[in-house]
Amino acid sequence: MDKLKTWIERNLCKLNNVEKMDDPHGFTRLGFTKEEAKSHHQFLAIAKELELKTYRDQAGNHWAVWEVDKDAPTIAMGSHLDTVYNGGGYDGVAGVLCALATIKMLKDKHFQPQKNMAVICFVSEESARFGVSTIGSKAVSGELDFKELIGVTDKNGITVKQAVEDMGVHWEELEQATLPSHELEQFLEVHIEQGDKLQESNAQIGVVTGIARPTRLIVTTHGTSNHTGTTPMHKRNDALVAIAPLISYVQEATLKINQQEDPHLVATVSTVNAKPNAMTSIPGEVQIGIDIRSINDGAKQKLVEKITNYCRQIEEQNSVHVQIQTLVDNKPVKLDQTIHNKLFRASHHLSFKTESMVSGAGHDAMNMATRWPTGLVFIPCRDGISHQPQEYTEVQNMVNATMVLSEYLQSEALHYSNSNLNREE
Amino acid sequence: MDKLKTWIERNLCKLNNVEKMDDPHGFTRLGFTKEEAKSHHQFLAIAKELELKTYRDQAGNHWAVWEVDKDAPTIAMGSHLDTVYNGGGYDGVAGVLCALATIKMLKDKHFQPQKNMAVICFVSEESARFGVSTIGSKAVSGELDFKELIGVTDKNGITVKQAVEDMGVHWEELEQATLPSHELEQFLEVHIEQGDKLQESNAQIGVVTGIARPTRLIVTTHGTSNHTGTTPMHKRNDALVAIAPLISYVQEATLKINQQEDPHLVATVSTVNAKPNAMTSIPGEVQIGIDIRSINDGAKQKLVEKITNYCRQIEEQNSVHVQIQTLVDNKPVKLDQTIHNKLFRASHHLSFKTESMVSGAGHDAMNMATRWPTGLVFIPCRDGISHQPQEYTEVQNMVNATMVLSEYLQSEALHYSNSNLNREE
Question: Which residue of B has its CA nearest to A237?
Fold first, then answer.
């Protein structure tokens, strides 16, 4: 196992394009940039070493395939190599690396699969550049909203279309990138947890049951801006004073819903922008952003309803106008229960302390799950920190996840009939 | 009087560098820019028409003097010509114009003053460019904090020193610009009210008793930023949730203090900046700016104490650290009571409905008042709107203020003994 550990250690640096994993500024590899492309290039080099067949699909994702039989089903694994600004070197990378390491392990064991295995390196998973996440996996699973996407720009005004084409991907091809369902049998992803539940319960492996995708609201309050010095208190129409109680309310209402049931509901007033935001001006307009997540869609909708009612109250009690805009309303994604159970058993069989859990963050797996039976494995990350240079997971955790995938695949890829994935009842 | 009205109308456009006062974008003449200098140039042209002696002082303020006797006392009047971004054409301009018009009126009447009269056109009154207000009048009255000023930059990174020198003012001279007290006898300013009290009470003239200068706090709350999706509600250290109740508290505490006494206390949470201010991150740091004004310093200090105690409570009840920084703590300025009474009487004598009032906003007069007996006259402005393109006052209001100054000066400048200003008891 020490050989595998060294292999993972070396290729972790390689995929991150560094000699050592200790840069205090972390990694900045935005989607559809040369930095991301460079890491994809390293991915291809490792795949070549493993004698895998590689190609780029119409969305710019790279594939590495262990093809045993053209007509056999294909089990895909994978994740992404892009990062946020000054992010960590494990979010995404760990998943690509564990997928490659699993194939290496199976080959080293001289395992002879009856199914093909593919590793997918998805492009542009993070929303850091364009505000749109998981572009590569959305394209493959037919989840991309091109009408919405076409107008999107990064902070330098570069459109997503231009960025994509700069990387040699034709927009027209991207629109055709959806993979027919029959081309894959299932999809598996390994990811760092980005939370601290595994660390707290001292577990080595988490197997995910569902992904809590976000509902996002923008609440805009319109009052009247005026001079802070010359406008008496009773003549004000202060948009910030009017909307401020909503911040506490979102917190309280969320706690209350969690008390009644336990839908793992989380809600955050994460952004606040006041206009004119000048020391001598009463705030005339305030915009707050609310991020709401749960694996229970009913709980999310209940909170949205409560927030809406509260905003109507604010309007009645103040001379302000309150607008609520739904920016995003994604339904939670349930992962495949059969795969979950098999992965859990495989992990347990290897004597890992294993937890069944939900994911609060989105991953490529959530798109793949809309089209193919999908499994997601979490490994602990130190103190739950992610999207920061301090993001860290021990190499041993990646070895563990590789062992779980390998254990799972040794039975999963051993036989196939012409039927689909064998379901447990 | 129609001739004076036409003269004011014409020179209002001249000082604003326009043909007509109807630009929907208003005026942008920031301090120490070519735009401001252009209006100063127009000021010099009008002064020349009135046969006044003009010069620039060491701070870059322009002076126009009706000199009757080198050894006689000098009564100064004036205001400024710079504006905020997209401001109005009356804030400042009205004061410079009424001062010039007063001299014209007195000259047309063949009044023979025994004192000299000066009109000062102060530079950079607005804080829009550098965040520092009334630079020109602070320089003259010895109120400029050079140590603080030297590090200040505008939003393009240009230092105030560079901006000043680009306009041909040497920094070393600016440091020497304080005018010896004996050089002036008193100072008078006319300004639009920037509030709607005069309009509401249907008064034509306001005579100001005191200026409520601001105390400004920056309250910074340090919590912990984390992923909105993966951090359970009970494990959060949300800086925004912790500090939000302070916004309502500032409002409530201010209303309460005003109920007990009536110190015309106004307080505003006018700025709010959250970090990282991203949809998927819990706010880790929130900074709010509070602007507090009253002509009663005790009332201001009482509110600051209440806010401080409330912040300590927030710290106790939440796992956050709250820092309070006093950005500005200016004592209210009392204007000269004798001058106030004489101006009030002059206005009343002319049958104007006259109000005695306080100023919630700062003006050049507040600096001049620290060194010379000072009077401030307000004229109504439509709906109290200022610092916006919609800012408006009728030309007749400027005629009225000119008549008041003229009436006042006809007795004030008629005689002089070698003693200082004759005080009423």
Answer: B268
